[in-house]
Amino acid sequence: MKAPRTVFVCQECGAQAPKWQGKCDDCGAWNSLVEERPAPGPAPGGAAPPNRYMHVGAGGTAQLYAEVETAAARRLSSGIGEFDRVLGGGIVPGSLVLLGGEPGIGKSTLLLQAAGLFATQMGALSPPGGPVLYASGEESEHQIKSRGDRLGVGSAPLYLLAETCIERILEEMSRLRPSLVIVDSIQTVFSLKFQSAPGSIGQVREAATQFLFAAKAQNIPTVLVGHVTKDGALAGPKVLEHVVDTVLYFEGDRHHSHRVVRAIKNRFGAVSELGVFEMTSSGLRAVANPSKLFLAERASGTPGSAVLCCVEGSRPILVEVQALVSTSSYGNARRMAIGIDQSRLALLLAVLEKRAGLNLAGDDVYVNVAGGMSVDETAADLSVLAAVASSVRNRALSPNTAVFGEVGLSGEIRGIPQAALRIREAAQMGFTRVVLPEANLDPADDPSDGRCELVGVRALGEALDVLLA
Ligand code: TYD
Ligand code: MG
Questions:
Q1: Ligand 1 touching residue 281 (CB < 6 A)
Q2: Domain annotation covers residue 51
């Protein structure tokens, strides 16, 4: 009998090679090929393999667009407002959601809390909805329960299943007819149809596809937990992100108590929506007013600090940008950025030197976005330079001033999107002056309703004069 054919599959990109090699020909990754055995084909004359052409919709026939029912109206609340917000307004029936994040960031905690609250809601319906199934390949039922006790899950109709075999989980799904399924994590489950190790790209793809079909066919929303690799990508990489409907990332500094859930892909809502949580001794607590949290420990009146109004998804958040400029005692000056892009900082500092005449050649420059937040908007430019200039001149910005705007290479301040939203948030948080690009000033409309003085600026020099007057 012929030995089963083995292939070597790149764990980074999914490319296949007939023999092992040190480097993947397709994506160039080193040492990423792992031996995998595909599922055995049908024995000659034996039964035909199960039909792989499963349907994610109503059936095999085309339907008229106008006759297709909309599912959008029937979103279900997870019971956690901030989680619903990132999902685009709640859980869509039959959707497959992937929640990624570093170990220990709180994925299991968040989902167990959501599972408990969701189950309680479903149990209170009349007639009661299905229970919630929480399948874990990482913790035993006892461990999950002892965590749940701390989170106050109580007596909600929540089923726990410590199982790593997908076929078993799917069996339990058909038996319990749950209204929500959570699989923690996709890297620990394996399919009997596939002979490679759990966590390998083949298994992860197979698992995600099987859960996708189960979710669509039975109309059960399913949340998969995904681990991230050390460089921050979801392990079992892009294949997963293509299969699922929604990709959420759980971020945050483990040394800070707050956590941020961000949507990266969402077939049912806006991406880059943000949910902010705080980790407490009784689990994750939603933070309704993140600006307050990120500005909580601001020392007003110290040089090197500027308040930026950034927008994440549809949510404006005020954060503090801090800068420290000190004389470099070693030959080469250091530029360090935490929370903003390093190369963007280099570019901005060059503009500051050339266009505003500040000399930073012999100085170390450190920039930090307080509270572990990361900002990737160009709207942060002006606040970064304001903080740096404030530190250089040793002069504090007025504590009641918020600032935003993009800085161009010729030192011009360019308009940015959603200015009104930012101004309104600053006014709400008690700021009395906002320095912004002149292009964003609308003389006919004051979003702050007279609570803020709006100062439009056109050039970097002018902006710094206003801010550091
Ligand atoms: P966990 O949800 O296990 O992380 P993940 O599933 O993403 O790996 O989170 C574990 C961390 O959260 C752990 O470091 C302890 C902390 N934690 C609390 O601070 N309070 C709590 O109530 C719980 C359950 C966990
Ligand atoms: Mg976990």
A1: yes
A2: no
